[in-house]
Amino acid sequence: MKNFLKLSLVFALVLTTIAAHAGGADFSLKVKKENGKTVSFVLNEVKNVELSIYDTSDKLIHSEKINSEGNINRVYNLAALPEGTYFLQAETEMKIAKYEIKVVGETATLSDLAITEVYKPMLVNVNGKVSLSILNLDKSPVNVAIYDAANNEVYNKTFNGEQNVNKFFDITTLAHEKYTFVMAYDNKVFTKTVSAK
After folding, report:
1. What pLDDT score does 112 carry?
2. CA–CA distance from 135 to each of 26, 138, 139, 163 (Å)?
3. What is the C-alpha separation between 131 and 13, in angstroms, rounded?
4. CB distance 109 to 177 below 8 Å
């Protein structure tokens, strides 16, 4: 009965965290104004974000971290950029969204809609009981691997065609104290180390 209550509490915590994750994961970008090579936009419903601009070869052109209690307003003057396609990436604790910037002649345009959105995996660890939840919107293959402290692989599985990947692991039954979870999907790799205690 005691174990059942413990597992019920773990499950309740996981559900609460998943609900918080879903509620805080979404943000939206709205282009306010475009004037020549200057674009002005606002990020709604986001507190902390890292904004980066990349070219088509993934070369970083600009990066900044912003902490705010409300909407985030930004104005970027792109006059120094040659004609071409660029990408604005907005990354929060929950999500990475990429928007397209087109610089043509004396004008720059920024897309309102994200061209890609990747939700980061959510790992909840309660005394070695680990819940993994991945929202995989494009249903790309999701690979989950777990390594012990000696870098030995103890788990490896690929999930194909699943929009929601949910797994539960009890690492208290394993030999080492710490384990590293490596989750790869949608051309991104996420890594997190958790403790068995």
Report:
1. 85
2. 12, 9, 9, 6
3. 10
4. no
Output the CA–CA distances (angstroms, integers) from residue 119 to 18, 57, 64, 79, 133, in the order listed.
12, 23, 20, 32, 10
CB 51 within 8 A of CB 61: no
The three-class DSSP label of residue 111 is: coil
d(CA 139, CA 179): 26
Question: CA Rg, the chain, in Å?
Answer: 20
Task: Provide the b/e sequence for 18-53 (b: ≥16 CB within 10 Å).
Answer: beebeeebebebeeeeeeebebbbebeebbebebbb
DSSP assignment of 109-143 equals: EE-SS-SEEEEPPEEEEETTEEEEEEE-TT---EE
* Partner residues linked to 77 by β-bridges: 38
Averages of pLDDT over each 10 residues, the chain, 197 residues: 44 44 55 81 83 94 88 88 94 91 91 90 92 92 94 95 93 88 94 89
How is the chain split among helix, strand and coil, in percent rounded to 5? 15, 55, 30
**Cα 86 to Cα 54: distance, rounded to the nearest angstrom:** 6
- Minimal CA–CA distance to 41: which of 106, 79, 88? 88
What the block records as the tokens of 158 is 């690929």
